[in-house]
Amino acid sequence: LEEQVRSLQASTPRKYPKVKYLNYKNRKRILITGGAGFVGSHLVDDLMIQGHEVIVVDNFFTGRKRNVEHWLGHENFELIHHDIVNPLFIEIDEIYHLASPASPPHYMYNPVKTIKTNTMGTINVLGLAKRVMAKVLIASTSEVYGDPTVHPQPETYWGHVNPIGPRACYDEGKRVSETLSYAYAKQEKVQVRVARIFNTYGPRMHMNDGRVVSNFILQALRNETITVYGNGKQTRSFQYVSDLVDGLIALMASNYTQPVNLGNPVEQTIGEFANIIKHLVGGQSEVKQIKAMEDDPQRRKPDITRAKKRLNWEPKVPLESGLLQTISYFRNELARSDRFQES
Ligand code: NAD
Ligand code: UDP
Ligand code: UDP
Fold first, then answer.
1. Could you tell me the distance, in angstroms and rounded to a whole number, from the CA of residue 139 to the centre of ligand 1?
2. Is 170 a catalytic residue?
3. Which residue lies with its CA nearest to atom 23 of ligand 1?
4. Using an 8 Å Cβ cutoff, are 124 and 86 in contact?
5. In ligand 3, which atom is closest to the CA atom of 210?
6. Which residues line ligand 2 (CB under 6 A)?
7. Which ligand is closest in space to the CA of residue 146?
8. 61-76 in b/e burial notation, b at 16+ Cβ within 10 A?
């Protein structure tokens, strides 16, 4: 029987999403570090569909093979299990450097590793870019602004970060990552692009990463209490993942070298956000305030004047439709894990 199954598998061609044909002059070899993660896997999809060759490097700390499994075996796709803290020697034209845990519980889980990934990992990526003369885009974050004293945050704001607080491993790691990028640009003529990404959500985000979008949706779907940390007056601005991916690709293609904010400027208090999700999911959850988080930034909203002017980019997906797609993803994931437990 095993023999029969194997021969059946071998004779059934795999179905892949349709990719465009690009001739060799326009087709690039693109490395995505952290490409098995939430944002990275959506970037993989867009670049594959455009017809490029995509190489994902990931250590699967927070990423999953399942996020990219629909490309496994495709001739334009390669998945390498590798930790970017160690050197990497491959030949590529462009690098999107996304490898780093991104949610507070993930990056606080092993702060030393988070710092190594964002310093030694970024040095390896920049060393690679230097050797092969590749253009490199660094995924930075709005956290470089810390708990901001300027609102909304333009790229010219230097930030307000506690260097020894619980978020420092990530915030300062990303700040060094930016510093390294401009040092390599100046000294070694590496072409760098720096995206300062604001809170992003969408399908394939981690169910249990402790972030607000996943927590609130899961709590609402399970009819559990929706937990607002603190008084709920703190604000965030949420961008849908397809808008971010468009922005990353536009930034890579542009000749603009200074940091660019990529985020949705529609600002929400976390208290309001809890009610929006409760309403969209339906159900019986109550919204409750619990203990505040240490060093929680109180206001966050991107000033995207620069991205509009330099990249002709702005977010398109309204919060409600992005959340509905995300809720539907979480609903399916919950059903899937229930089935898994039953069997
Ligand atoms: P994610 O955790 O889903 O993806 C990160 C990926 O990097 C994972 O696949 C993980 O396994 C991989 N990784 C981590 N350490 C690694 C290492 N040492 N070597 C190789 N791979 C490693 O997170 P995400 O939300 O997709 O974030 C992607 C990037 O965008 C991160 O750099 C993050 O800092 C940045 N960012 C994300 C957001 C957001 O809201 N999602 C906001 C600001 C910045
Ligand atoms: N590096 C890498 N892949 C390459 C080239 C370099 O991983 O293709 C690493 C290299 O091991 C080094 C880092 O990138 O640790 C920085 O490289 P750079 O050339 O700037 O520094 P050097 O090798 O001179 O210390
Ligand atoms: N938050 C909350 N309840 C939760 C998770 C998060 O009230 O269950 C709040 C958190 O205190 C912060 C905001 O939601 O003010 C966004 O938190 P998240 O961890 O998603 O991202 P951050 O922007 O802080 O990195």
1. 9
2. yes
3. 102
4. yes
5. 5
6. 87-89, 123-124, 127-128, 130-131
7. 3
8. bbbeeebbebbeebeb
Atom of ligand 2 nearest to the CA of 124: 14
If one residue of 196, 215, 236 were mutated to test the ligand 3 pocket, choosing by the most ligand atoms within 8 A of its CB, it would be 236
Q: Atom of ligand 1 at shortest distance to CA of 67?
A: 9
Residues 6+ positions from 173 with CB-CB distance below 8 Å: 100, 114, 115, 117, 118, 119
Would you tell me how many other CB atoms lie within 10 Å of the CB of residue 206?
A: 18
In this prediction, residue 120 carries a pLDDT of: 98
Q: Looking at ligand 3, which residue's alpha carbon is closest to its atom 5?
A: 212
**Is residue 268 lining ligand 3, measured as CB closer than 6 Å?**
no
* Residue from 59, 100, 260 to probe ligand 1 pocket by mutation (most atoms less than 8 Å from CB): 100
Asked whether the CA dihedral 16, 22, 23, 27 is positive or negative, the reply is negative
What span, in angstroms and rounded, lies between the C-alpha atoms of 289 and 220? Answer: 15
Q: Which two tokens stand for residue 281?
A: 């999911």
Distances (CA, A) of 252 to 27, 236, 248, 260: 15, 26, 6, 11
pTM, full prediction: 0.95
d(CA 116, CA 130): 20
One digit per residue, pLDDT tens: the chain, 343 residues?
Answer: 788 777 766 666 678 999 999 999 999 999 999 999 999 999 999 999 999 999 999 999 999 999 999 999 999 999 999 999 999 999 999 999 999 999 999 999 999 999 999 999 999 999 999 999 999 999 999 999 998 999 999 999 999 999 999 999 999 999 999 999 999 999 999 999 999 999 999 999 998 888 999 999 999 999 999 999 999 999 999 999 999 999 999 999 999 999 999 999 999 999 999 999 999 999 899 999 999 988 888 999 999 999 999 999 999 999 999 999 999 999 999 998 888 777 6
For ligand 2, atom 21: residue with the closest CA:
127
**Which of the following is catalytic: 96, 107, 170, 201?**
170
